[in-house]
Amino acid sequence: MGTLATASSAENFEHCFPMERNGKVWLSLHVRSRAKSTSSPPIYTEGDTVSGRVELHFDKPEKIKGITVAIQGGTTAVGQEEIIFLDTTQTVWSPDPKQGKSGEKLQGKHALPFKFVLPKEVTMSLSKNKQAEFKLPPNFSERASPSYIDYKLIVIVKRGLFLANMVLSHYFAYVPLSMPLPPSTLRQMAYRSGTGLIGPDRDRDGWKVAGPAKLAGTLFNVRKVGMECELAIATPLAFPVRSPIPLFLTIKSDDEQALDILSSPSAVRVFLVRSLANGSDAVDDDAVRRSNNFFVESAGQAVFWSISRDQNSRTLQGELEVKHGVKPSFVFPRFAIRYTIDLLPFVAPGFQSDTMPNGDPILLSETVTICTTHAPGVVPRSYTPPGYEHPQGGGDYNNSMGLLENGNQRFYHHIR
Predict the structure, then answer these.
(1) Phi and psi for 95 in degrees, rounded to 5?
(2) How large is the greatest C-alpha to C-alpha distance in the chain, in angstroms?
(3) 387: alpha, beta or left, given left = phi > 0 and alpha = psi -120 to 50?
(4) pLDDT (mean) for 42-61
(5) Would you list the DSSP string of 122-191?
(6) Percentage of residues in the chain with pLDDT exceeding 70?
(7) Within 13 Å, how many C-alpha atoms sit on residue 59's CB side?
(8) Nearest one of 257, 206, 201 to 230, comparing CA atoms
(9) DSSP run (H or E) holding 154
(10) For strand 207-219 and strand 223-234, is the pairing parallel, antiparallel, or unpaired?
(11) What is the phi/psi pair of residue 390, to 5°?
(12) Cα–Cα distance between 229 and 213 in angstroms, integer?
């Protein structure tokens, strides 16, 4: 993926998080971030400076032993203790040493500034004698998720002897920076000029062609048919959130009726599939996945339209929209999110697909990376014709895969 220049400040909006005592605000956390409204939590990205202040208002003198501000990040798996991977603390006020250990009395109003610089990476232990550097992961919290990633700003007011400390904390969102390398020269030209995309037959540098995959089935319960299909995915295989993934699908068969039926855009099942791995082997791309630590679901379904036909082949062009809210790819100890583009067997009236020899319902699968921003100077275009709509949500992936549902958890019948 491409190299990013990171921002050093986040100054769009000031948030205020108050704490009341006896019906009055006596402690408040003020912080600036990239968020654009009060309805959003503070938002930061890698390399940002997190600046703000702690405000206190004491109606009467009160002994305080110290005031700190901390930034903390941690991962939590259901049923396990949180693992802290980021923990940076600043002391914004401390008593005069001459006051002794019992603290110093504060009265009136106080505004105590602080400033942190978010690191781009943290060092994590993988085993007893092995450590590695990892980019900070994005925050992650979904209903019924087996794992969570949280970031918090924490203010602690340390009080006098026998008095409990006062803690004010609030979560914030973290977005790592990632971008793809630029697409092929021909695709960039098409984006700039508004002309059609050139397919893999003439732009070989611009596409990864997966396949061919063989598919067999029965047509109208009468005759057996066979075909081959290839799925071309635009390269590089990395795509920003809120952008289209260009696709071409070629289907070949000696049976022209089968071609006509299965090349119908509604028969094609291509999905962006998210896999969530947790546990000790989450960082291992080749680990054997088990249903208790590997969770798979659709993040979107492609739409196709026909563009050419020959006697023994049909070609369709398609797009798969990476929707807003899709989390970027990341790999972190005990928690990783990866993506593939999967072609499943065709579904059309009168056609019954045979069971795949290996029992895997996926015809073709290609690993892709979801990024957070575009390559510099590249603005992807959508080529979906009027009247064609991208399927809502994840499409009909669950039905196509025959997934078992257990609450909101979804498990494969098989583990790839």
Answers:
(1) -75, 160
(2) 96
(3) left
(4) 92
(5) EEEEEETTEEEEEEPPPPB--TT-SEEEEEEEEEEEEESTT-PPEEEEEE-EEE----PPP--HHHHHHH
(6) 88
(7) 7
(8) 201
(9) strand 147-159
(10) antiparallel
(11) -70, 135
(12) 5
- Provide the 10 A C-beta neighbour count for residue 1: 14
Q: How far is residue 133 from each of residues 46, 120, 121, 197, 219, measured CA to CA in Å?
A: 15, 10, 6, 39, 54
Q: Which residue has the higher pLDDT, 413 or 103?
A: 103
CA distances to 79, 293, 383 from 278, in Å: 13, 5, 37
Q: At 279, which helix (H) or strand (E)?
A: strand 269-279
Residues 232 and 200 sit within 8 Å (Cβ to Cβ): yes
Residue 117 in tokens = 């610089």
Residue 99 has pLDDT above 90, yes or no: no
Give SS3 for 406.
strand
Q: Give dist(CA 12, CA 33) in Å, integer.
A: 6
Evaluate if residue 9 carries a pLDDT over 60: no
Cβ atoms 307, 385 nearer than 8 A = no
In sequence order, what are the residues at sequence separation of 6 or more whose Cβ sits closer than 8 angstroms to the Cβ of residue 395? Answer: 269, 271, 298, 300, 301
pLDDT over 70 at 179, yes or no? yes
165 three-state secondary structure = coil
Structure token pair of residue 51: 């600046």
Burial 251-263 (b: 16+ CB within 10 A, else e): bbbebeebbebbb
Query: Which DSSP string corresponds to 277-317?
Result: EEETTTT-TTPPP-TTTEEEEEEEE-EEEEEEEETTEEEEE
Place of tokens 């071409």: 248
Tell me how far apart the alpha carbons of residues 89 and 67 are, in angstroms, rounded to a whole number: 10
Averaged pLDDT for residues 134-144: 89
Structure tokens at 230: 């290839």
Question: Which pLDDT band holds residue 236 (cuts at 50, 70, 90)?
Answer: very high
Token match 């291509």: residue? 270
Residue 142 gets the label, from left (phi > 0), alpha (psi -120 to 50) or beta, of beta
Question: CA-CA distance, 147 to 145, in Å (whole number)?
Answer: 5
